[in-house]
Amino acid sequence: MVAKILASLTAVLTLVAAQPVFAQDLLPSWNDTAARSRIIDFVKATVTEGGAGYVAREDRIAVFDNDGTLWCEQPYYIQLGFMLDRVKTLAPQHPEWKTKEPFKSILDDDLKGIARGGEMGVVELGMATHAGMTTDEFNRIVSDWFSAAKHPKTGRLYTDMTYLPMRELLDYLRANDFTTYIVSGGGVEFMRPVMEKLYGIPPQQVVGSTIVTQYALVGEVPVLKRLPKVDFVDDGPGKPAGINKFIGRKPIFAAGNSDGDYEMLRWTTAANGPGFAMIVHHTDGDREYAYDRQSSIGKLDTALDEAERRNWLVVDMKNDWKTIFAFEP
Amino acid sequence: MVAKILASLTAVLTLVAAQPVFAQDLLPSWNDTAARSRIIDFVKATVTEGGAGYVAREDRIAVFDNDGTLWCEQPYYIQLGFMLDRVKTLAPQHPEWKTKEPFKSILDDDLKGIARGGEMGVVELGMATHAGMTTDEFNRIVSDWFSAAKHPKTGRLYTDMTYLPMRELLDYLRANDFTTYIVSGGGVEFMRPVMEKLYGIPPQQVVGSTIVTQYALVGEVPVLKRLPKVDFVDDGPGKPAGINKFIGRKPIFAAGNSDGDYEMLRWTTAANGPGFAMIVHHTDGDREYAYDRQSSIGKLDTALDEAERRNWLVVDMKNDWKTIFAFEP
User: Which residues form the signal peptide (chains A, B) (predicted)?
Assistant: First the structure.
């Protein structure tokens, strides 16, 4: 008993000693610019009891887009990278793919040919690579892929392509009793196997697009089969719907990087009371990629106009971030 | 600083002093029967580090059906009670309901007439009472209704119709670092406004049936409109699918009371490793209701047969529960 008390007391003393966090220790990969200050000011206000900006712990919900907000989405979405590799893996079982689009273009390494297939091509590609197995099998396939698959430009593991300043931001929010969620157009079951390791976000806090699953018995064993049918698209106006469906509370903090996040940012800042919206603006062509209004991936146009009008924070990756990737020299 | 340390130390001492919980303090509304022992044995095993039944905190997921498992579902589902009242409230705006089923029967207080309408009648009824407003408006309507609506037999508020032993069980599991979820056929947005107050379960841990919502602007204000279209039915084989979609982890503990929970109980006990399934068997016609295989509401037939075969715990409400409702004399 006494040992227990002493151990607990030590823990408490350590905690108390660690309390005064100096400004320069917060978000160390961020430069000391207005962007960083605005984030810190908002968080401080939400945790200051009695203050006008105070928010109860249970309402400190923070939502983050994933592609282009937490990890790199260029030269193509990481999930598309998965699809391309998967087609090549499965090709021997599908001789018909040699002449059938979009599979033919993938097997020929012709990315433009895939793009010519348009939306229908991508849906067909998604279903061919994401359906037809159980949820457990898909989890294993995705986990295995992430353990080895590499980014086409940097040659780093995809799992190394996360933005260090954003991971620090997630930690900082959680240290202030925010609950952090992913709200992404990506597939829920594509993301879940790695989100906890990458961002400290557990499966139940990953909101994304879903396909229909069906309960079935394989012998005596119940499984869920992934059917080739879209259930829910968590993008654009689907993001507030997804937040409402999965979380059931309005966020007070939202981060995105493209027009696909626009409605989520509106939703977050429309509530009575505190609401903070931020956009990660890809301005660093040297360390990462520079793109916005004209990009086919992560197009940022309407939301960029609206950001100014609505006083949303636009983070300039080049100037606001000291480091982008942890692997930088 | 010193005051802070002292306050923390006091908190720690209180915690330590409170540690030894004696068996008779656990689940006080349960009789000292085998049912109670089996639950306690399972929970103790999951938290015993190094033991064969140990489960890491993040995997201690417990799922609970709601109707008939946590609160009373007789003589009809509480959500049906809401629909009936809602039709009466809205009737002046719908003169056509006077001659149109299932509305006519409701306005005539003819419950059998509603039943004659079958499943389509119930869907139409659901849409007429659950759609056509924003999510915020629906939340208010539901909250207002729960503040006054009463159970037709006991005359108590519906919110008093929860089972005290089950609330103790939820508390007990949470005290052992389980995360508790509702997984119900009921509407998510019908349940969420009251689940936290009744069971300590926050909105993001309520899984249920959903209707399609649509993002829209009302002037400058973003809202979600509830459309008269079913999105997902979280019942029967839909329950494992709902668990996978919303939670993304397999539960290790599941409680239900009807055949609609059968697949969830199978799913929970099929995983490699620990899995506990229990069925609340309605055996007390005096204090509550007695029903199982022949009941149109909460039919328990297949799952009761399977319970024996699979060694699921069947809780006998009459003999295993000292108290059912907190309001009992």
Answer: 1-23
ipTM: 0.90
Asked if A1 is an interface residue toward chain B (Cβ–Cβ < 8 A), one would say: yes
Check residue B16 and give its pLDDT. 43
Same domain for B138 and B45: no
Mutate to test the interface with B, among A245, A247, A264 (most CBs of B within 10 A): A245
Other beta carbons within 10 angstroms of residue B286's beta carbon come to 8
CA distance B39 to B171: 13
Containing domain of residue A122, as a range? 79-146
Residue B67 has pLDDT above 80, yes or no: yes
Determine contact: A245 vs chain B, CB below 8 A: yes
Distance CA A156, CA A162 (A): 11
At B12-33, the pLDDT tens digits run 444 444 444 555 578 999 999 9
Same domain, B63 and B103: no
CATH number assigned to the domain comprising residue B251: 3.40.50.1000
**Chain B within 8 Å of A267 (Cβ-Cβ)?**
yes
Q: Is the pLDDT of residue A15 over 50?
A: no
Q: How many residues does chain B have?
A: 329
**CB spacing of B215 vs A237 below 8 angstroms:** yes
- Whether residues A129 and A267 share a domain: the answer is no
Q: Which residues of B touch A238 (CB under 8 A)?
A: 215
> Does A15 map to a domain?
no
Closest by alpha carbon to A191, among A178, A202, A180? A202
Same-domain check for residues B268 and B303 = yes
CB–CB of A246 and B204 under 8 A? yes
Give A173 to chain B, closest Cα distance, Å.
Answer: 18
Q: What is the pLDDT of residue B117?
A: 75
Tokens encoding B270: 């099929």
Closest among B298, B291, B296 to B258, alpha carbons compared? B298
Q: How many domains does chain B have?
A: 2
